[in-house]
Amino acid sequence: MTQSVVDQVKDRRPIVLTIHKIDSLAEFEGLEGVWNELLAKAEFETVFQMHQWYRTWWKVFGDNRRLYILQVNDSNRVVGIAPLMITGGTIEFIGAGNTDYADIIADKSVKREVVQVVIDYLREHRADWQTLILSQITERSLTVPALRDILAASGMRCRIEEIEQCYAYAYEGTEEERGSFEAGLNNYRNLRNAVNYFNKNGGMEYRSYTEQEEIEKRLPQVFKFHWNRWKDTPTPSKFLNDDDCRFYYEITRTFAPLGIARLETLTMGGAPVAYVYSFDYKQDVFLYTAALNTFYNKKSPGIVLYYQITDQYIRRGHKSIDYLRGGEQYKGRLTNRAYGNFRVAVYNSALRYRLVTSYQNFKQTSLGRMLVGNKHLKELQLKLGSEIRHRGVKGLLKALPATIWKRIFDYRVILVWTMGEPQPPRDTKIPVTVRKLTAEDIDRIATFYGAEPKSRKYGVLQERFENNADCYAAFHNDIMVAILWGEYGKSYLYEIDKFYQLKDGEIALVDGVTLPQLRGHRIQPYLLAHAMRDWWEAKLKTLSFTMSDNYRVFPVLRKGGGTVTGKVRSLRLFGKEVFRS
User: Fold this and answer.
1) Strand blocks (E) in 112-260
2) Whether the Cβ atoms of residue 275 and residue 221 lie closer than 8 Å to each other
3) What three-state secondary structure class fits 102?
4) CA 384 to CA 432: how far, in whole Å?
5) Which of 126, 167, 265, 503 sits in a 20 to 30 Å window from 7, CA-based?
6) Which residues are paired to 417 by β-bridges?
């Protein structure tokens, strides 16, 4: 318990603010009522400061972290809450990484005093932490100016910097003009052409889903669209992480019954083109995550959906459409506001503070600006950051020697599996139906793979159907969740860049893919059993090719009656093949 005496400006009487640290889950969960009442008195409130948001985030990501919530009291009244957690030696806001706005929650009439007593407490308890990182504080909050003054007076080593901008569209017209509102269709080049394209090709439909069941059954496709969009970039989709997928189910279960969670959808002829997961909170709409069908990339489906959302919600009486973090160029054309988000970092270690400051100063030099702006170095930085998040620093250093050695000496062995008589398929963990697809389904198949029209992958799919390949897919809630192919004549082994010539009566099992978030649900073995049954009845000998170290798929193949009957070997030295058998 710590306390601070401050002057109450209104009546000049002294008040005593005390801090109570909360580090138990039970006490945290019991704060919901007082937490949200206090949020309603703040100068800036969003769904991301609600108690339900923090509680849901903690339920999914709270492992290996400790609660460090600071409750600020004035006598028996709660006037402030700092929703903090501690990871290793770092104190930060609960929800860091998934929260677009974070802040110390307080009655705006005593916000500065609350910030003061929180900083005083953290300074007195420096033994608890090494670094304090308060990130994603909007400039619309009173916290940033308060921290500037308080930290400067405290003598603590700190850095306060704007890290990114959040764009928003705020309605500026009268209530009478809402009915005739148009969301600036002509403000973005080619937007009207894109709208016309979708309307002419099957008809464009915008719809907002609010029911928990309706949102949940579409989430697998949201994840898949997002995965396709980012899979070939240095920052792959967050939905490759099971916890991130689980988080979206949890926030749906939390906020859909409250009428806050929404899934905005754009379809063309009934087929999904774009999704935006959003929150409708007190007449403000927050566009949290977009997932686009990459098959229509050139038609800007996301921008078309953003236009529809802005148009519809402003007409309904909402105050603003918040696009949240990210400075993408299109946001500037669709919005009329830009707000800075700030990060406040406080360091106990003088060495760490000097290193960070030196690096930031270097970035302002001509050489630093050149290096920071270099495209290849940016990609390397993002890739390293992704690897560190995935493996950790120790894991990355451990894998580095093997990676370097493989660049020099790359020996690969491809196992040839011969598939025997198929076994009856085991039930999947979720209900699915299996269909055999044809060339008429090629656009839907391309959507699953994230292949754009005229792309190399799209051409491969066309060529497969031209060569009479078989294609099987599994569907859950009419959403494609897994796929596999059977090829005749020859099969391409991409691992060694070689075609394998098949004999008459042989078919090669290729390109078996399951949505990442549904792996482990026995969908691929179920799909394989159905395809194998058809091929067995057609008296076809089925082959499959896998890398010798791909242990993840071995159980699937063995359950399908597969045995290893051959090997294909390849050796590369410094990237050039010197041997192949």
Assistant:
1) 131-138, 157-170, 204-209
2) yes
3) coil
4) 38
5) 126
6) 544, 564
Query: How would you classify the pairing of strands 131-138 and 90-93?
Result: parallel
3-state SS class at 114: helix
Higher pLDDT, 299 or 99: 99
- Please compute the mean of the pLDDT values over residues 84-95 and round it to a whole number: 95
Residue 96 near residue 83 (C-beta atoms within 8 A): no
Ordered strands of the 320-325 beta sheet:
66-67, 84-87, 90-93, 131-138, 337-347, 157-170, 320-325, 284-292, 271-281, 261-268, 204-209
Tokens of 222: 């949201």
Query: What are 156-214's pLDDT values in tens digits?
Result: 999 999 999 999 999 998 888 887 787 665 556 667 788 888 888 878 899 999 999 99
Q: Say which range, 163-172, 308-317, 368-377, has the weakest mean pLDDT.
A: 368-377
Average pLDDT over residues 325-334: 81
Phi-psi label, residue 309: left if phi above 0, alpha if psi -120 to 50, beta otherwise:
alpha
Structure tokens at 576: 């050039």
**Residue owning tokens 């689980």:** 246
| Burial class of 417 by CB neighbour count within 10 A (0 to 12, 13 to 18, 19+) | buried
Tokens of residue 46, six digits: 């969003």
Structure-model confidence comparison of residues 234 and 292, the more confident one? 292
pLDDT of residue 9 exceeding 60, the answer is: no
The DSSP code sequence of 433-477 is EEEEE-GGGHHHHHHHHTPPTTSHHHHHHHHHHHTT-EEEEEEET
| Nearest alpha-carbon partner for 490 in 500, 482, 480, 481 | 500
The tokens describing 252, both together, are 């749906």
C-alpha to C-alpha distance for 418 and 170, rounded to whole angstroms = 62
Min mean pLDDT across 53-67, 68-82, 143-157, 491-505 is at 491-505
In angstroms, the CA 458 to CA 451 distance is: 6
* First-last CA distance in the chain: 73
Compute the distance between CA of residue 495 and CA of residue 493 in angstroms, rounded to an integer.
6
**Structure tokens given for 310:** 């802005």
**Per-residue pLDDT at 2 exceeds 70:** no
308 backbone φψ class: left, alpha, beta (φ>0; ψ -120 to 50)? alpha
Q: Write the Ramachandran bin of 326: left for phi over 0, alpha for psi from -120 to 50, otherwise beta.
A: left
Q: Are the beta carbons of 69 and 60 closer than 8 angstroms? A: no
Under DSSP, the state recorded for 188 is: S
Q: Which residues of 462-476 are buried (b: 16+ CB within 10 A; e: fewer)?
A: eebbeeebbbbbbeb
